Each structure stands twice: as C-alpha cells, then as structure tokens.
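[STRUCTURE TOKENS]
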Amino acid sequence: MPHARPIPSYADQERVYIADRCEPLIFAARAGELELHAVGRHDYPGEKLSDNELVGLSSTGFWNAEHGQQWGLPEHRNEGIEFTFMDTGQVPVRVEGQSTTLHFGECLITRPWQPHQIGDPHVPTGRLIWLILDVGVRLPHQEWSWPSWIVLHPPDLEELTRCLRQNEQHCWKTSPEIRRCFQSLAYAVQQPIPAGHSAIIVSVNALLLALLEMFRSKSITLEESLTDSQRGVQVFLDDLRHCCGKSWGIESMAESCGLGTTRFAHHVKLLTNLTPAGYLTQCRLEYAQALLRQTPPVPIGNIARECGFSSGQYFATAFRKWTGLAPEEWRKTQA
C-alpha cells in the first residue's frame, strides 16, 4: 500500500513533532564529543541512502558516548517504528509523557504516533543502537506495510505485526540473541555503502525474528482496541489541540485519519460529544485563552489569525459565546 500521508499535527504550537533530525547528536559528533556511525535518508545523520537503496529504512546506527553529554534528543516523532537498544550504560527516556530509564540490555519500541525523547535533558555515557523502519503508517489503525527486503515467513511477519500493533509496552528486557542482532547491525553500518547493505538486511531480519521469539516467550497480551479506527481518531484529536490554527475542514481532518467524513464524525461525537467543527472551535478558543494570558499582550487580531479564525469579528463572537466576555475583557480578568 502507498505510504500514509504524515498527519499535519507533527507541528505543535509550543513543541516540534517532526521526524527527528537528531541535530544535537550530529553537532556533538562533529565536535568530537562522541563516536557516531549511521546510514539513513532524509535529515537523519550518517551516510545517505539513495531513493532505491534499502527502501523503507529511515535510519539505523549507533552512538558511543564515553563521557556525559550536554545535549539530548528533545520530544519528537519518527515516520516509522523505532527500536532503540542500550548496549552499554543507561539513558533517561520519556514516551507519551511517561518517564523511565532505559538500562543496558533493554530495548525501547516507539510507534510513529508516539512522541518521545532521549535524555532528561542530557545524555549520559553509553552506547546506544537504533533502527527506524517506515511501515507506511502514521496512526494506530492503519495497516502496516513492511519493506520488501524483510523476508520473514508471512505468518511470522503477520504475528510480529500484531505484537507490535496490539501491545504498546515501551521498554523490554531483551535476550542475548537480540543484543547480538543489534551489535551486528552496529557493525554493518560501519561498512562502506553499498557493501554493508547485505549485512544490514541480514541483521534487521534476524533482529525482527529474535523480537518475535521474545514476544512468544513472554506470552504478551494483545489488545485489538489499540488498532481500531476510534483510537486513531483519538490520537488525531489529541494532536489537533496543538495545531488548531491550521486551515481545517471536516474533509481534511477525516483524510488525516484515513477515514470517510461520516465515520470520522461518528467517532468524534462518541469521543467528545461534539461535531468535528465544534471540537475544532473549542480547541481554537482554548488556544486563544492561552495566548491572551501571554505577556506582553498579543494583539487580538494576531490571536484570531493564529488560532485559525477567518476574521477578528468571528473570533470575538465565538469567544464571547464561549466565555461570556469579549477577548479583551477576558484578558483583564487574568491580570
């Protein structure tokens, strides 16, 4: 299937939810603060892959920090599923607002819709290996499409996909075999391109098979509700609060969820008791309230435009209906 269109809400008003460029890591490597080896595409660090090389591999590599760093990777998302392995040392991580520590021998698994950060805020000593594969999804309910060079037997790949889609435990204690696979992957990325491609393909396939064996050994619980369309809509609505100033209509909102307008509106009603337009207006008004509290004061016309209202008058009317006060009057109550 064609890759799903990225949801526009990767851009947050206060934070940036774009596919991670790893700029702090790149700058640290250039400054000689750590060892870095990677291959990938787009803005990811390391040797660049051409359009027809290892299609579906977004990024893989490792860093080795022999002393504490003064940087971390801020909250971000990836356009694929990411496997992050701590080979030595440990690092604080945060996934969807929940903080924990990734210890050596543990693997962090994050899906494209899950904001996460590495470091709190800085990265300590350690050797970290990562792999990001684009499986053609941006929301939980979309069907996965693995790269063509993933050669697991179809029933095994289907089972692995279910495990990854229907269980969202973030951190896993791994087996020695999984560690060997990550280490082989780290070795492969140090080989010259394209000579290292075969080693990467073998390492990634071996890793996926080892992860499947781990899931089988743990008899993990699968939840089908994690992959239904209603959850995808909920993820979208959570993000919409942070990008409500964009020019949204019910068609574009439904399209971002990969749904028809009728089904999308049905889910929004169940989740919020509002129509899509009503929920969007609520998000915009709540954002307007946040802007009205800012110092120095933001002009009302600027607030109206930034929140996505077509005119200052429409904003003032909607705001008065929402709060009982005109925007300027409401701002004075917050002083």
Observations:
- The mean pLDDT is 90.
